[in-house]
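About this split. The held-out portion is used to measure sequence recovery: a designer receives only the structure tokens and must propose an amino acid at every position. Recovery is the fraction of positions where the proposal matches the reference. Here is one held-out target exactly as it appears in the evaluation file.
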């Protein structure tokens, strides 16, 4: 028995010894500096106040981190670095009972205690900085408007003329963006891939891109990883990846097929006999669904519905002036080659809509929320007051009319949202706040049915407007999943001056139901069908009229 006990003891000691000597991978070391660097940037009192050139500090310490052969050596590098920044004084304010109600799903400093990467001494030092973090005005971030809660990323060097082959600047690009999302993106907790894992996956792509195009695609993939329809990113190099030549028609993805819905240039489409309702099944002998899945990591969107809408450049575009397609027309399958053009060759001008409202058959009002102005609301609601129902079409981008219309369709003042916004004195934490109310107490001004029509093009303010109108007394929402990107945007520039955005504040229903990624609540789901497009129908509008009449 003693021999067995001794054997287990030796195995245990040997295992501990191996663990102590275990080498860290390059990705583990670079992920650790990304996190420590970003953490000190927003938490350390002297760094967060702008005392140091923080980019230069990163460049100086990177070689040491990359050469560290164990966690003990790595931790010593970080401890010496932190010590050189100066003493962190005790923060009395940090220890006071905070009256804020926190939304903590985004908050994640668990990595501080990762004993595979850090020694206990370093973990304790980092924890001490958390407990005595910077308070007050920050050097790298501020509120644009504290009442609303959106932030402004400031005092960041752009490096507009940097060479993509500069490894330090490529890593800075990743680390800076990753930490902005880590601490200030209200929906980080909802990403399909854990944000820590995104960092691990992106490090090799930023460290060793094969070309400048690959570097730009890495930036695009990083931004798409936040799963936010507001997170767009376009450069000349990303355009080149998809190709600058377009077919002269737009389309909608349905059942892994591309259905032609409109033309960018009628005569060019006619020249190749492209018709509304043609169902494209293959492009260059690849199925449409396969192409979409291959490109999906480069297509931004909060959900699959919006990603499909944003796939307009990724299915048919290419680098040549023609493309082969397989398509279905009148239940027959055809194959042919059609021409592609530079988009400027289409001389495309979007048709301007002018009819803000009308009365449909059956005494049903219809309002186009995309062109209705605030000044129009009293006249429109007066002229539609005698209708049995009003359909508000929100498959567009409204112009701030939601509050005014709600006064007509609601007989009481209502809560319609709750908000979360970042606590800059405790980065990563978000504070709950009650949003504005809408509607007025009193007699109901419009007594008919109210229908809201939505789809994947209903994004941001459109979703916010829908939530406002949904508080009405007799409201039904009809359509399909909306874009799932609600909340004002934070705009900022990446290294190199490339522009991007994130949704900046969290928007929830009063019961704290999420709208981000999910979209607004829909009472009756209606999705366009291939046959409906072929027949030229607006199936959502038809369903709305049917619902009103029944």
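Reference sequence for scoring:
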């Amino acid at each position: 028995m003693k021999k067995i006990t001794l054997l287990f003891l030796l195995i245990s000691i040997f295992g501990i010894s191996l663990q102590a000597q275990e080498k860290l991978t390059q990705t583990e070391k670079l992920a650790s500096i990304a996190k420590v660097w970003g953490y000190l940037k927003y938490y350390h009192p002297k760094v967060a106040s702008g005392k140091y050139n923080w980019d230069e500090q990163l460049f100086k310490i990177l070689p040491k981190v990359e050469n560290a052969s164990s966690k003990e050596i790595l931790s010593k590098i970080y401890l010496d670095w932190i010590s050189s920044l100066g003493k962190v004084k005790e923060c009395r304010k940090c220890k006071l009972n905070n009256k804020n109600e926190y939304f903590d799903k985004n908050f994640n400093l668990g990595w501080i205690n990762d004993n595979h990467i850090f020694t206990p001494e370093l973990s304790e030092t980092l924890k001490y900085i958390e407990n005595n973090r910077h308070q007050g005005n920050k050097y790298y971030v501020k509120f644009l408007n504290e009442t609303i809660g959106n932030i402004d990323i400031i005092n960041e060097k752009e490096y507009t003329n940097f060479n993509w082959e500069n490894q330090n600047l490529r890593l800075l690009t990743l680390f800076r963006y990753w930490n902005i999302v880590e601490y200030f993106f209200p929906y980080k907790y909802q990403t399909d891939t854990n944000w820590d894992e995104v960092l691990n996956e992106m490090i090799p792509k930023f460290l060793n891109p094969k070309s400048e195009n690959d570097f730009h695609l890495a930036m695009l993939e990083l931004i798409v990883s936040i799963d936010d329809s507001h997170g767009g990113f376009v450069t000349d190099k990303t355009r080149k990846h998809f190709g600058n030549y377009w077919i002269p028609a737009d389309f909608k993805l349905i059942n892994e097929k591309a259905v032609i819905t409109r033309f960018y240039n009628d005569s060019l489409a006619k020249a190749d006999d492209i018709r509304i309702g043609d169902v494209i099944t293959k492009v260059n002998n690849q199925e449409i669904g396969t192409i979409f899945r291959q490109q999906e990591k480069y297509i931004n969107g909060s959900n699959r519905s919006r990603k499909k809408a944003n796939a307009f450049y990724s299915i048919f575009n290419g680098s040549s002036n023609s493309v082969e397609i397989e398509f279905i027309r009148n239940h027959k399958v055809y194959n042919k080659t059609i021409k592609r053009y530079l988009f400027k060759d289409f001389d495309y001008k979007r048709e301007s809509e002018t009819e803000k409202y009308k009365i449909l058959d059956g005494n049903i009002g219809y309002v186009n929320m995309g062109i209705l102005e605030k000044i129009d609301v009293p006249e429109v609601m007066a002229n539609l007051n005698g209708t049995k129902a009003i359909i508000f079409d929100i498959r567009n981008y409204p112009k701030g009319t939601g509050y005014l219309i709600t006064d007509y369709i609601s007989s009481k003042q209502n809560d319609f949202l709750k908000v979360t916004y970042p606590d800059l004195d405790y980065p990563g934490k978000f504070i709950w706040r009650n949003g504005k109310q809408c509607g007025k107490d009193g007699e109901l001004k419009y007594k008919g049915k109210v229908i809201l029509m939505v789809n994947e093009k209903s994004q941001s303010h459109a979703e916010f407007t829908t939530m406002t109108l949904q508080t009405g007394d007799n409201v039904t929402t009809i359509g399909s999943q909306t874009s799932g990107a609600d909340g004002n945007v934070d705009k900022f520039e990446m290294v190199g001056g490339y522009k991007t955005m994130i949704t900046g504040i969290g928007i929830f229903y009063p019961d704290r139901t999420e709208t981000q990624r999910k979209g607004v609540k829909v009472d009756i789901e209606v999705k366009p069908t291939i046959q409906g497009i072929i027949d030229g129908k607006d199936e959502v509008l038809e369903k709305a009229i049917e619902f009103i009449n029944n």
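Annotator remark: The longest strand covers residues 322-329.
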